[in-house]
Amino acid sequence: MSTYGIDLGTTYSCIARLDSNGNPEVIRNNEDNSNTLASVVFFENENNVIVGQVAKDNIETDGHRVVQFVKREIGKPTNRTYEFDDKVYTPVEISALILTRLKNIVESQGDTIDDVVITVPAYFGLEERSATKQAGELAGLNVLSLINEPTAAALSYCARQFQEDRTILVYDLGGGTFDVTIIKMSMTEEGGVQKIKVLATGGEDVLGGKDWDDKLYDFILRACCEENGLSPEDLDAETRQDIRSKVEESKRKLSQKEKAKVRIDVNGSRTEIVITRKDFELMTADLVGRTMNYVESTLQKVPDIEIDTVLLVGGSTYMPMIKEAVEARFPGKVQQHDPDQAVAKGAAIYASMLGLAVENDTADETGSESSDDIPTDDKRAELAAKFTVEDQTPRSFGPGVVDTKGTKHKYILENFIKIGEKMPAIATKTYYPIEDNQERVRLRAFENMSMDDSLIPCVNEEGEPQATDPAHNVKLLGELIVNLPPNTPKTTKIQVTFKVDASGVHVEAINTATGDKFETFLRTASDVDIDNSAVHQLRISSD
What we know:
Nucleotidyltransferase, domain 5; Actin, Chain A, domain 4; Substrate Binding Domain Of DNAk, Chain A, domain 1; 3 domains; 13 helices; 31% strand
């Protein structure tokens, strides 16, 4: 059974598995001569879609037919689409093309992919997570689970050099997302199992290396204009694409050298721009500051914890300014190992652990021998017994219900499960129909960023949008219609259960009088037909 871990990144993606000795290894992309795959798709024509570095190379000449940074769009309420050759693609479908390319890389080397675990930013909500899983399924992959990127990186670190109980802060700056996660790694008394427990998370899913690229692009653009006495509007599309194509190369040079030269053709003449590392650091100091603000706010969630080690994860941490800023805050505690591969390697370990737990012993049933290229069942069993992973809920979740207390009834969101609870998280509460002889109730499920017990949902009782506190980021995930038998009294107990894991939210409602059960697995609100007809809600009190 071949299980793989996939780091589906904003700018680059990576796939890994365990070798015959049970050690994680990245599958090399021989076509691009790299351990990673550029997360870029080029629609050359209706019969040829290219993914990877070749696609990225076409940004300069055919940028209008290239899609990149799609991870920033997946699962977002903007519902952005891309149209090429009279066909419309969603971010899920673009991501599926990238995942299919990774799958093809494995298959071209003579192996097959049975099961995968895909990584996501710790800060992703349900819609982003569900959309990521859909992309994997669309690519023909059996997605065992999702795992948060910092947790995967910590798992890779733990497998490599775990020696004693440690509290680790993972600073994960990728191409488009930033996560900071505090993890407790400890040796349990039960058989020496190594436990990885997430204590706190923070970050932003629209902050990453792309933002540094954009700053550098603007700097080069302005410099070209000043050198030639032009305004930005005077530069044609080809020149802008030329600048954009040289930004990443310049950023990499500045990670090794004190200055970098960029040559751009402007209206037939060659313009040379010199960028110093100091210039780059000054123009992006606010971005570094934003990441460190998240570090501090995450530390405040566990004020009594002492950090022993800081792991730098993500390709963007190669920039010297990042290591210097983190080192200044945590002197002598910063480590950087495989920053652009650690997440995929950790996902491979987790995939093997999960795969062993759910698979049958195919070799025994068929009489075939295990492949020399994958770890034996004994080695996988040893690995599965070695670790336990305890992650946290990234959001708060709960139903919209009517509060009948007081002179005026209110439609509120009750937070069953709050940010930071151990996953899988399960919570149950009893509600009641609003009136006697009610035929149906509408059970809406919401996600938010609040730790309050209750707050205003993003729609009212009739399903119409209403204003909420922007900081709470309240989202409607979907709804479950519960049918009630005739003559149901309003004192009937409706038991509502929410279950949250890394892949999504499961909602269940049971009529305790009849035993009738209604349930749904919520993926995204766009997948659910929201019923705005006159169907009553549930109420909190039986009074």
